[in-house]
Amino acid sequence: MRRLVSTALVFVVVLSVLGIFGARGTVGAADDQSFLQADHEFVQAAGKGDTATLGRALDADFTWTDADGKTRTRAEVLSSLPTPALGNESGAQVKQRAYGQVGAVMSGRDKTNVLRIWVKRPAGWRLLVYHEVVLGRQAPAPAGPGVKVCENPCKTLPYKPRNEAELGIIASWQALETGVTNHDAAAWAPHIAEEFVMLGSSNDHPLTKTDRIATLNLQKQTGFGSAPAPLVSAQMFDFGDAVVMTSQHQPHTGKPVHVSRLWIKRNGQWIMSISYQTTMQAAPAKAG
Hints:
alpha+beta, 7 helices, globular
């Protein structure tokens, strides 16, 4: 037991020296240290194909979305382990955020990126989401007039909220997507965390809150239609002041997209902190 604790402490110290801890969500509590240790063990086990160790780390609702946008369940992963896009993550840049009972690890090397979302269960930390994105893999939508009307998700959704938290998240999401449709950065920004980051198959670099505001302002000047992709299906996992959302969207043209989002409650307001979006390569494309 002492050896395990020592290993965890050494691991956290190494991460601190490397500068992996950001200004927000800095790890300090014992639980957060064990979350990082669990993530380290997962990466090593996945790289070695050690399904016995992985089985103890994966949540019952775990999903693995690869760089092609194919999503596998826990049972499918343990039956036939996919090859991790970053291998053992040697040389990768790693960032982490902790939000109470939810922790996120974002690892990347060149254009390949992986998001892992850990959740605190009664038995300890479990990995709920593993999501790969290769930046720039999918060509952006062609230039043109775009779509200027947003019904789904701005006004209606094929999803029924189950509790107050989900009601708040949907209200926030619909407000921000309405801001996107109207090119209204002032309406969009209050629903987005300052540390927000979005990575997608059709983007050549990670997008920050500042980047998205600049894009909305440019679209306002050009009049380009930018209605968001309608929602097809969604799941939400509630952990107090943090909610994990996985969903599938069908853009107005092209192939569907699998999205993993992390919502946090800050100052009484639900805001989006992380969004990873991977185009589903094997799915048929919708004609314009």
